[in-house]
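Session log. Operator J.P. requested a structure for one protein chain; no other inputs attached. Running the standard single-chain path with token output.
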Amino acid sequence: MEKQEGRDAAAVRLDDPWYDALASDWGDPDGTGAGTASGPGPRPGRGDAAGAGRPAADIYREVQRSAAFQEVRGRYRRFVVPASLAFFVWYLAYVVAATAAPELMARPVVGAVNVAMAAGLGQFLSTFLLTWAYARHARLHRDRAALELRWAVFDHERAAKAERDGPSGPSGPSAASGTARTGERDGR
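Structure written below.
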């Protein structure tokens, strides 16, 4: 969110690129794009994305084909696939050991705590550790690139909207805030 200065300091404007970029067929079981009461559809007075200018679907396809998007997806897969497989093997080993080797699982470790209890608590601990590792990996290796992709989509959609609106399109505070937003993204 951006804080507005001046006499309209109480007015706050959302500057989220996904705020206005909802899919037109979200929530539609038939995929017609007509919108339902449970989900947003094309909103009145917003203009049709398939009309003049570039359709939103083309913008998303272009971003999906980009090297930056493929890199973000690759980083995601390189973490999630091995981590999921390792956790699944660990869980299966616990279940198989509990079923196939009950005497091993009943062996005491410390006092009344046996191998089965220790391994069960290890399942909870490994779940929390995996969640922490996933969040850390996302923050360090994917979030910045994903945010840049989000802004790229937003900028493409804004340009397509400007093409549709023409030279006499909307102007004013929301149109002027684009340069301030670009400066914030670039760290200026």
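Operator note: The first helix runs from residue 56 to 65.
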